[in-house]
Specification:
The protein has about 325 residues and is an alpha+beta fold. The protein has eight helices and 20 strands. The structure holds uridine-diphosphate-2(N-acetylglucosaminyl) butyric acid (EPU). The site of uridine-diphosphate-2(N-acetylglucosaminyl) butyric acid has 17 residues, from strand 13 and helix 7.
């Protein structure tokens, strides 16, 4: 384990922002992690996973610990289910493909989401009608304060739309080291009802899709809408889809009858932020080195040399415009550092 001073994080965040860590160390086991935490108990610590959900607006004046724990295996199985463990530093998409190769169902709709296994519970990643909470069994985390290992089951994680205990009460207190998912061995609950998946399968004449077919459909849809961070720096959806009270929604709908929406409950409606941003005229717009993706307005992009602050300014301008035009507050999904 080498601690490096003044380390560039450009390759460690999917926005491709140039920012420096005061100190940087990569750990590849829980033991190494515990040792680093113990020997640096009075130093400010910043935990870095896949770097796919953060916007760096400044250098990090802390010891950045890069979570590089690798490994994946089936830890238990019965006739119907397999419990699969992924170490926190495993690349998520490679992990998903591996579970599909094992014939296990549950993660196929979450193909090609950037980031690592360890961060999936933090924001309860989701796409195409599936969220991680649907297959999550438990995760193991290490307390930053005490170095103790703690297990969180599904209830303990308090999952909600792009939310968990790790973004709220337990924020910055734990480092997730491994996650166990409960996947199906047979009678897979295939989730193909999401419009774009149905269309993609139909256009390939697939009537009885395999897990791999669903994964391929998701990959194809994502590739057509979402930029590859290796080619164009981005962090996926920059904003969360706002949830508005029914009465307020009705008022806005009378002015914008085309607005798409999803009913969450009797009193709450989720509105796609991508539609709001596109309707406000931002889709494909460029502001210096930063911009709004031309195929999905929910995604902000770095055209090469943007600073985190430039992207942050664009995001604040979008938030203000949406507020002025629709009276809806949209919140960043990405962590602003
Ligand atoms: N829309 C527009 N313009 C746009 C984008 C979307 O009008 O530029 C409209 C679409 O026509 C559709 C609606 O908004 O009616 C929803 O669009 P889409 O199905 O593309 O999904 P989304 O709500 O924009 C969410 C997730 C994505 C996930 C997709 C698919 C959030 C914040 N984002 O986006 O997640 O891939 O659904 O399930 O919930 C991510 O978190 O990084 C991410 C990419």
């Amino acid at each position: 384990m080498n601690t490096i001073e003044n380390f560039s994080l450009k390759e460690y965040n999917t926005f491709g922002i140039e920012a420096k860590a005061k100190q940087f160390v990569s750990v590849s086991s829980s033991e190494e992690l515990i040792e680093v935490l113990k020997t640096n108990s009075s130093t400010p610590i910043f935990i870095l996973g896949g770097g796919s959900n953060m916007l760096l607006t400044k250098d990090i004046d802390a010891l950045v610990i890069h979570i590089n724990l690798k490994g994946k295996k089936i830890i238990r199985e019965d006739a119907d289910f397999a419990w699969v463990e992924g170490m926190a530093g495993e690349n998520w998409h490679e992990f998903v493909l591996w579970t599909i190769e094992q014939g296990l169902g549950g993660l196929e709709n979450l193909s090609l989401i950037p980031g690592n296994v360890g961060t999936t519970p933090i924001q309860n990643i989701g796409a195409y009608g599936v969220e991680i909470k649907d297959t999550f069994d438990h995760c193991t985390a290490i307390s930053k304060k005490t170095g103790e290992e703690v297990t969180f089951d599904r209830d303990a994680c308090k999952f909600d739309y792009r939310e968990s205990i790790f973004k709220n009460e337990a924020k910055d207190q734990f480092v997730i080291t491994k996650v166990v998912y409960k996947l199906t061995k047979r009678n897979h609950k295939k989730n193909t009802s999401y419009g774009a998946i149905e269309q993609e399968l139909a256009s390939n004449n697939i009537i009885h899709p395999t897990l791999k077919d669903i994964s391929n459909a998701v990959i194809s849809i994502r590739n057509s809408k979402l930029p590859n961070p290796k080619e164009l720096g981005n962090s996926g959806s920059f904003f969360k889809n706002p949830i508005v009270p029914m009465a307020e929604f009705k008022k806005i709908q009378s002015q914008f009858p085309d607005m798409p929406f999803y009913k969450i409950s009797e009193n709450e409606i989720k509105v796609p932020a991508g539609w709001l941003i596109e309707t406000a005229g931002f889709k494909g717009k460029k502001f210096g080195n930063a911009g709004i993706h031309s195929k999905q307005a929910l995604v902000l992009v770095n055209y090469g040399q943007a600073t985190g602050n430039e992207i942050w300014e664009v995001s604040k301008h979008i938030q203000q415009t949406i507020w002025d035009k629709f009276g809806i507050k949209i919140e960043a999904e990405v962590n602003i550092i």
